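User: Here's a protein and a ligand (flavin mononucleotide). What would the complex look like?
Assistant: Let me lay out the input and then the predicted complex.
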Amino acid sequence: MLIGRSDPERPCITICTGTGCVAGGAGDVVEAFRKVLADHGLSRRVEIRLTGCHGFCEMGPLVTLQPSETFYPKVRPKDAKRIIEQTVLNKEPIEELLYRDPSTHEPIEHEGDIPFYSHQHRIVLAENGRIDPTNLNDFLDIGGYLALQNVLATMSPADVIDDVSRSGLRGRGGAGFPAGPKWKIASEQPAACKYVVCNGDEGDPGAYMDRSVLEGNPHRVLEGMCIGAYAIGAQQGFIYVRHEYPLAVGRISRAVQDARRAGMLGERILGTDFSFDLKVVRGAGAFVCGEETALIASIEGRKGEPRQRPPYPAVSGYMGSPTVINNVETWANIPHIINNGPDWYASIGSEHSKGTKIFSLVGKVNCTGLVEVPMGTSIRSIVYDIGGGIPDQKALKAVQTGGPAGGCLPADQIDLPIDFEALREAGTIMGSGGLIVMDESTCMVDVARYFTGFLEEESCGKCYPCRKGTQRMRELLEDICEGRGTMEHLSLLDELGATVNTTSMCGLGQNAATPVLSTIRYFRDEYIAHIRDHCCPAGVCTELIRFEIMADLCDGCGACAKVCPAEAIFGEKNELHTIDPNLCIKCGTCKDVCTKDAVLVLSGGGHEH
Amino acid sequence: MSTESVTLTIDGSRMEVEIGTSLLEAARMAGIEIPTLCHMEGLSSYGACRLCAVEIGPPDKAKVVSSCTYPCEEGLQVRTHTPRIVNARKLLLELMVSSTPSSKTIQDLAAAHGVTQQRFRPENEDCILCGLCVRMCKEQMMAGAIDFAGRGPDRRITTPFEEDSEQCRHCGGCMYVCPVCMLRCAGPAADSTLCGGCLIACQMPVNTAKIA
Ligand SMILES: Cc1cc2nc3c(=O)[nH]c(=O)nc-3n(C[C@H](O)[C@H](O)[C@H](O)COP(=O)(O)O)c2cc1C
Ligand code: FES
């Protein structure tokens, strides 16, 4: 629901202009709505509000009408006229434009009734769809900066730290270190100069929760940082945002300016003795730059390379001064904890992991997007209730959590509650909240090979086990994928993986073997099939599969022969076609174009190595 | 206990050391041998080879850290030769001999730690990126002619812009500390010439295996 300055009954068209929806054409949709309103002389009566990301980008551009909460996905510019005439003026939903439930195909009118949203518990993301992130007044209308006011007027720094500690909030950037105790360490340092840093590097491919928060609700992050700075006694802070996020950089920079002008940043904030200012820093891009010591080095203008801790940044960080570095989502939780109290926060979540966590749900699942749920929610609930299950009647095979250095859980673990401890015990990590759903067409050895290769490239290369270990693991995995594997490969991977994870210097190397170790733990049979039977059960590893055309299905249309880039398919028109295994490069194009489903993927490489 | 010292337990023996002592220094003072490759007295600690890894904390919550960079803390329990640590060192040395078989230092260390097999695809790299030369050049020779560049598989030691460095005085310090010894000076050349070995060292493509 919108809490407007003006009459809540005043019609308002909210259009998502997050990165996803803009890529889907939201800019043209906005223009179309503006024009139709002008044509009807309604520009004053009906408000258009441009919001940040709602987390349902695959359905974008999203349009929600207030006060009725009618929700339209995938809106095109030409729909603007009908939506305004029928829904805004006549208060009638247009059935064919409504969202349809992916399983029942029933239309759903209200945003809140859509399973993707209704099964979520949104705290941090809740405000994204309600406010125009470039408008400070919108933020003030929903109670923005009240927490900061309250803190400055009524709480001592120690009170703030106590509240944050009691809430049980743990860092959302990956390691899950409790925020309160971290602040306490920094606050106890005798140094005169202290700093707070917001980690918005978000290097995990496919994850975009931090981007969405920075784009959609930048002032919440600023408010959280101001409160943190007050608690530890910092006068200066940095917001480090990856430079691939131009919209986020723009929105947060604008928010800093607006907040400064309104007296929420700068000298003597809100008329008190507390002074604090923020600087936006653009990140250089490498995955490892998100590691806290590397990130601080890069703010200092040095090479973004992790260093050995201790000392931890809370003791010696930016320029050797005590520095609290927290993730975007961690900071954005702080004002809510102050507003609603630490007990409220601690009542959400599981025993040792409190509050909610935003996950970026991607892969083979019907609804992809940003999912905010209480810690301890089961994977099943996320994949099936919120994600709407697996498309094309395929079976769930695995869920990969924790980003590139995370692990894979098999389908029989989907009742696992997601929290820091449970994931650790199951052999994977929370990371910053990536969730990739994989169906039966995924080869787990190939997945391990892919992520290990990514980590090899992204390792800073400083410590030997991480640099050399990822290279050696990748080589062993390639051997297995290409049919050269032996059972010794498997035991060596186990041994090497354990050494890489225990001896590496930073969090990247300490989890670099997790993709390998978790897949060996849960999908050992699949490794053995590659090694012993030279067979890739999922039909992915090209050296271990062959393509064949079924005689009883082929009608000799010749489409496959036409597209085959290797010219490996032979046959007369209207006669059975055959694939020459010695020429075939196993690209699968023939299978994609065959309308009769006559091309089959079979085990066994086809020709001898 | 004075405020200038801390007491800790290494492999079961209690010892008191000056604040600021590293675990490696403390262990060595106690006569406990811990292998290292990227550490050298007189140069700052770097923590890259990880051979000096030790376990700290109570056994059920043990953490593995590099002893050369970890400062002694009051009451800390340190274990330098648990099975996990011994096995990890052995495997690290196996990785090193597989990739850099020509180094006498590495061969000796591997032999001393019971590495008897070599299960990885043989490579022939010259540099293990221990960074001793970089620190030698910067911290002892005050030249700073060489440094790391690149990331991951592309990481290498080179001069700024990969050109002859004006800071380099051809002192040979880099070669002297190099555990791979590839370019150890072969003896004095005629007075009128500079042997130039260290100059070559500055320009050596490091990952020769990648190039080959
Ligand atoms: C390789 C690597 C990459 C990381 N990338 C990020 C990142 O993109 N964003 C982030 O917030 N934390 C990242 N972290 C975690 C940070 O080091 C650090 O723990 C975090 O910023 C602390 O904030 P928090 O306690 O609020 O999570 C990364 C860690 C490692 C080892
Ligand atoms: S950008 Fe519109 S929902 Fe994400």
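Summary: The radius of gyration of chain B is 19 Å.
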